[in-house]
Amino acid sequence: MFYTFSATGVVKLLNEHYGLTVTAKELEGYDEANFYVKDEQGNAWICKIAGESQHPAFLDAQVRILEHLAQGATKGRFQQVVRNLNDEPVTRLAMPEELYYLRLYTWLEGQPVVTVKGTRDLYTSWGSFLGKMDKALENFSHPAMHREIRWDLAHALDARDQLPCIKDPEKKRLAAYFLLQFETEVLPLWHRLRKAYIHNDANDYNILVQDDLVSGLIDFGDMVYTQLVNNVAIACTYAMLEAADPMEAAVAVVKGYHEAYPLTQEETDLLYYLVAARLCISVTTSAEKAAAGSDNEFHFITENGAWKLLFHLITINPLAMQQAFRTACGFPPVIDNAADYTPLLAERRAHIGRNLSISYKEPLKIVRGALQYLYDDKGRTFIDCVNNPCHVGHCHPVVVKALQQQAARLNTNTRYLHDHLVDYANQLIATLPPSLEVCYFTNSGSEANDLAIRMSRHYTQQKDVIVLDHAYHGTSTVAMELSPYKFDGKGGFGKPEHTHKALNPDMYRGPYRADDPQAGEKYAADVSKIIEGLKEQGRGVAAYICETLLGVGGQIPLPPGYLKAVYAAVRAAGGVCIADEVQVGFGRVGDAFWGFELQEVTPDIVVLGKPIGNGHPLAAVVTTRAIADAFNNGMEYFNTFGGNPVSMATGLAVLNVIREEGLQEHARVTGNYFMEGLRRLKEKHAIIGDVRGHGFFIGAELVRDRNTLEPAVPEIDVVVEAMKQRGFLLSTDGPLHNVLKIKPPMVFNKANTDALLAHLDEVLSSL
């Protein structure tokens, strides 16, 4: 567009229309041609040339606002408009290909803030300058500023249209998350906020500095009539971009602004989300420009910094930032650090079953989730290292939107036809071996395991079930009867007659260890022994059920060849092989989508739960046609909520996210990286006896002695509590409660891994 205008051409235009004799040098610009011009006496100006895309009325608004600011307290701090020889503020240039508009402004001295080191005084001055400007504009108006532009935070959600241009799944997910938060937290209050005519782009290139104080502001090309607080949010965003302490920089800006032009408490409470929204507009715009092949460096000038700040922002609890802004403005605190949970705990004890446990010595009150992060009511942020039901991340925007939208349309039972039911069933079975082709939907893994056992008993006309010692399969009555972890534990009822415990195939502390290449077959032989014992009693096997990596059994991968031998023996006896994938499935193990694939077997029934709905109550049983036909014996199977449209929409969204974001491969690569780091810690700390797992299913067993394998209890509890204090939520597992279990949301990244390993190293060193 601007190739017509050379520096030489601009010199001629300024002489012709302004009577000036100058030299000119071209400057970079976003959507206008810009030239620095200077005469022999040292007077300097900036010449701006816009095309027809800039409406004359809006160019007039830029002139009027500068003329308005040339008066009163803001006099001398903004550029002055230079009129042409015809006393016009804008010069029309009729070129053959297009009509152009030339404006000339005085040059404003000062360095762009991006070129100087940020200090608290500078950031406070930044805010103060904007506050005085906005106060001066209280009685300004111009109809051309009532417009729609991408950079107006009021239209932040339009950035969703550019999300597909972001190719990195992690970055796209992060931007989408913050846009969802804007929709959730900001939009309901948007209509109540003050509106004003604002500059809308007080960035680190437009803010000028002299002697560590803000001296001026240039470039009114993005000005708009919108919410007043947006001006503060934008300033905070760019102050934070390169600051050593981003939150401190933002607080200083807010403090300076508030002292010059008071904010409301409601405005300050939204700044966290508004800063994030501005960053989202920036990165999506850069992505769109890149996709279009732009080579204008100005289009990408803040891209790297914006991404860095977005990744930092999600680690900040929004309450912490709200508290900091409120303190800076003298508003009441949003966090009561002195408050304890005694009343809440008392209410819980009074009305909630007391055998519902609470994690950690000092309980956490979690109020928000953000992908792999959890925020508590005290303003603290925790990295979630163990919450595997939120498989693709807490509040994943794709899953949340799918659930919200379907809930707003319809939720009912499966006695009506609905596409989501068959769509999800088809997509789910596409991930499984062909023989697993019939789906039943339930609300929990416990319910699904209960149903799987019921189906196996219909099919085989037998009742006896073989489980692994220390196994856990749920909380229903039938599932409890399959769970030695429960029935052999405190308050347990002992092993039921029809349940039979096989050896836990633990290659670290079991009878057959990792150095035995036949360990899998030897552990499988114990199952065969149980089958033979049943035969001698004239009894058969209904089912063998096993997690395909053992969870409460100790985060244990099964020995090579184990399930192949067990399944062969069970099927030879007429039994059904059930794979419990409730904790393991949906790509968590990295090397495969399902845990049973690691053993190169195909179960007769697979049970799914936890990650299937990303925390939404959804589970499933998938089985063969033969078993399904046998189960169809005249008694209807109906589940009021199983397979409802909202659950199916949620399940579809989870599958799509796993596939589109490449989370299985991410789990493989990052999980291996994690285990390599743990093994390095094992070399340094004798308390780590074993590191094991696949992908994001990881266990680290702590022992006092690597020869006797004496469990490191209570040392492991000290480690878990210490890591919690450092912002990492871990838990313990295993028959001896000495295994650190690590099963984070699948979006857990290498930076999280590095941080956890560094802190774990320090904690173990302190023991």
From TrEMBL:
Matches recorded under InterPro entries: Aminoglycoside_PTrfase, Aminotrans_3, Aminotrans_3_PPA_site, Kinase-like_dom_sf, PyrdxlP-dep_Trfase, PyrdxlP-dep_Trfase_major, PyrdxlP-dep_Trfase_small
Cofactor: pyridoxal 5'-phosphate
PANTHER family xrefs: ALANINE--GLYOXYLATE AMINOTRANSFERASE 2-LIKE, PTHR45688
Species per Swiss-Prot/TrEMBL record: Chitinophaga oryzae
Protein name per the record: Aminotransferase class III-fold pyridoxal phosphate-dependent enzyme
Keyword entries, A-Z: Aminotransferase, Pyridoxal phosphate, Transferase
Occurrences of domain Aminoglycoside phosphotransferase (ranges): 28-262
GO molecular function: transaminase activity
Family: Belongs to the class-III pyridoxal-phosphate-dependent aminotransferase family.
One family name in Pfam for this protein: APH
